[in-house]
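Intended use. Records like the one below are meant for learning the mapping from a protein sequence to its folded structure. Do not use them to infer anything beyond what is encoded.
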Amino acid sequence: MKGRVLIVAGSDSGGGAGIQADVKTVTALNGYAATAITALTAQNTLGVHGVLGIDPAFIRRQIEVVLEDIGADCIKTGMLHSSPVIAAVVESLADVKVPLVVDPVMIAKGGASLLDPDAIQLMKSGLIARATVLTPNVPEAEALTGRRIETLDDMRRAASDLRAMGAGTVVLKGGHMRGALVQDLIDGEAGSFVLESPRIETAHTHGTGCTLASAIATGIAQGLALRAAIERARAYVIKAIETAPGFGRGHGPLNHAHTVRDDG
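Structure written out for the chain above:
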């Protein structure tokens, strides 16, 4: 086991996304996952049916006690649903010199909003501005930049805008775009490149964003070069989609355990 990842995110009662997906991913990639839970959700493959926020002071306490004892080699943030929660996380991490992967969770797979509108500006100034890696999907990038994204060139312009907000590297996920190929744009200080793969026609993609961000964070925590961490994370997610168990009647979960050997 190598690489400590502190995950600051919400819980998914269905187990497909959020903290549950994060912990599974880090563990499957041989890292160590610690958590600070920001919210509880009543959620299944059909959608989000309720959200119960955690007291921001208690979120801060979770972060503080983990860092002062176990420590972290990378921190990953996910669902931070309100301004007070984002403010608490920003304050807790103000003096922490650890790489930060920000998954700007704003919209659930089923379309439900997971971030208060007034919290978007605070996310930009408090988290995106210090992110080592930012991992938005197309709808999230549109909400953050105000741009309509329909082409790869649109993705490039949006990624440039996001980097101008302070993000070191932007991994702009193209799964919401049309076409037989899924193209993810990576834009960072060393330049930009596109990773592409055939689109997998399936409803079982719940938690892909959480999973990718946590897989990247694990690679960073384990000392991989950034491109290697991103490429390994992407390959892990693709295999997890291809081998999804088919649970639920809606957007089903991935197979996070495909790296685990079954010796019978």
